[in-house]
Amino acid sequence: MKNLSIKNHTISELIEILGDSDQGDGLHIHISHSRFEKIPITYPFRTDSFCLFLIVSGSLTLQLNLIKHTLVKNEAIIAKPQVVAHILEMNPKLSIISVSFTVDFILSNGFKKEDHDAFEFFTGNNIPKLKLSNEEMDSAVSLAKILGRNQRFSLEKLPFKQELVQSSFKLLLYHYASIYKREFPDLEASLSRQEDLMLRFLDLLNENLKNERTVKFYADVLCVTSGYLSKVLKEISGKTANQLINEAVILEAKILLNTPVLSISEIAEELQFSDQSFFGKFFKKHTGFSPTTFRKTH
Predict the structure, then answer these.
(1) Are residues 83 and 30 located together in one domain of the fold?
(2) Are 255 and 46 contacting, i.e. CB atoms less than 8 angstroms apart?
(3) Which residues partner with 87 through β-bridges?
């Protein structure tokens, strides 16, 4: 039987695919010194890390949860953990800097509340790309290179390495956050309890949507009642818990249907439906298309 799941790659696996050396500690800075001859990952995948992409030259087209983004010189975007990424096109002249880091890196490096508030853009569900001025891009590239240099050296060769990495990492992210705050001034500086509950619900949903589709499961894990959870989600997103669960399943189904090597029965099995017929009825109810029609037209 084929391996049906969308692949999950750790930050270490992505580093190996790119041909880089692992810099350790849940932080990696990739600087493309030469052009890519081909797309390094040709299939949709998830990763356990955040990633900031900076386009130095050329262009990159990628899909994040089925939303296509084309990035050109001086543009940047953040990809979050568990987002399904798919690299579609890479210009032969593409030169890119990427800064990848895990949640564990953030937690283990003494980030304060004000840091989390400034980096609030990481928690948004629809993060747009940013256009940087030439001066802003020059600064971002310089900061990324300094961070990369600090991260590569051993403690023996670079006394105060941890402090230097923390400081240069924060400086780069504050630089990005400043641009983001200027472009999106209405960004909230902190999360309410209800917003925090929604984010925790969405994280759980990403991890469990194939096996758990009842509101009660998520409410129990989050230590709230099903009614309260749905009420909070409705107030913030305009959708109930059931609607959000169904939307997550449909998104996963669409991504798998865009993978032509998988049969519809295999996709139904991967998504834990009892049979292909039940999957087909569920998909059509929520999209207006049968799985076969969606695959042909999309």
Answers:
(1) yes
(2) no
(3) 62
